[in-house]
Design goal:
mainly alpha, Methane Monooxygenase Hydroxylase, Chain G, domain 1, 2 domains, 13 helices, 82% helix, elongated
Length: 360
């Protein structure tokens, strides 16, 4: 029973990876069967194409197929023309034909990753006739046919076999980013009272930045997915923008944490700062759970109370005349932090609205 339970936990925590492995296997076998039925000359390349283009999500498969098709068609046409105009008869002619057929495609791939497959396609088109004794035209035609078959099977399998939607993966990645933000807050806020090393601040910011980059990448895949599915769905761009603003808020707070508040202010504001860090972390985790469970979120009265308590302490210090004792630099520090908190409060509310927008 323990082994069964452990196996179930392993599957539930890695179901996306298991699904991807299943899709790749089905795509490879299906392409081989269809290729034999259609009499594809080099079914090996069709199978490899299907394996390459079966990606983690439907949206990523669509994007990979589009890029692969562009690189293949462009490479096949150009290399086919070079081989036709400069037939590779003899070693010298073959070397010249390969160089002329690959160099422009390699430069194109270097400047645009979308055409990364173009050089390898050019190699196949130029050299395949020396092995199969086919013409350059037939070599290019076969290459396009192989990619068309592999790409078509990859798209169909991605839609039908344990389909993973990029939209769902994007929301999960957004939830991971919010969990990362929650983990970042305690050491970040500690710097407001005691100061923090710049390298520590940069490490914390890099973690949040990497998490946002992952959301951004998957959101782009979701755009391609909407095109392939041909179904109107709420755009993920507003959610992405709200997360980007959250990242900018942490950058502002991180800059303030590089140097501590004046000692008297640190002691006076310490409890309010601790409350903001605690409630903001709880709110971030609550929003993450909402993203994973596809539910809307209610207003956070506790977080608002923490921000209000900080603002009231600042107002009390102003009434007591304590701000007049600060230098210009220290005063800018205090007001910059207050502005960052006000913006952060608004962005938390905006993010909650975006999470609850539309069907998920």
């Amino acid at each position: 029973m323990k082994r069964i339970a452990a196996a179930r936990r392993a599957f539930s925590t890695r179901h996306v990876q298991w699904a991807l492995g299943s899709r790749i296997t089905v795509a490879a076998v299906t392409t081989l069967i269809v290729g034999h039925l259609l009499g594809t000359p080099m079914v090996l390349w069709a199978v490899l194409t299907a394996v390459i283009l079966t990606q983690m999500s439907v949206g990523r498969s669509v994007k990979a197929t589009i890029d692969y098709a562009l690189g293949t068609v462009g490479g096949a046409i150009y290399a086919g023309l070079v081989s036709a105009l400069l037939p590779p008869h003899g070693e010298a002619a073959l070397v010249a034909s390969l160089a002329l057929g690959i160099a422009p495609l390699a430069m194109l791939a270097a400047f645009s990753p979308r055409f990364s497959v173009a050089p390898s396609t050019g190699v196949l088109v130029v050299l395949a006739p020396t092995l199969t004794h086919a013409t350059a035209f037939h070599s290019a035609y076969d290459r396009v046919l192989e990619v068309a078959l592999g790409g078509a099977v990859a798209l169909v399998v991605s839609h039908l076999v344990f389909p993973a939607r990029a939209r769902v993966l994007a929301r999960q990645a957004a939830a991971d980013m919010l969990d990362t933000i929650a983990e970042t807050l305690p050491p970040l806020f500690a710097g407001l009272r005691d100061g923090q090393e710049s390298e520590t601040i940069r490490a914390l910011q890099r973690g949040v930045g990497a998490a946002f980059s992952r959301v951004d990448r998957i959101e782009q895949e979701a755009r391609h997915e909407r095109i392939a599915i041909l179904r109107a769905e709420p755009d993920l761009a507003p959610l992405l923008q709200a997360l980007l603003r959250m990242r900018h808020d942490l950058v502002m707070i991180g800059r303030a944490a590089l140097s501590p508040l004046p000692p008297e202010f640190g002691e006076r504001l310490g409890p309010a700062l601790d409350a903001i860090a605690l409630r903001a972390g709880e709110r971030a985790r609550d929003l993450a759970r909402a993203l994973r469970t596809n539910r809307a979120v209610d207003h956070s009265a506790q977080l608002d109370a923490a921000f209000d308590a900080y603002a009231q302490e600042i107002a009390s210090l102003r009434r007591d005349g304590r701000l007049r004792s600060l230098s210009v630099e220290e005063l800018e520090h205090v007001f910059a932090l207050g502005f960052a908190f006000e913006q952060w409060r608004e962005d938390f509310a905006e993010l909650a609205r975006r999470i609850g927008d539309g069907p998920r």
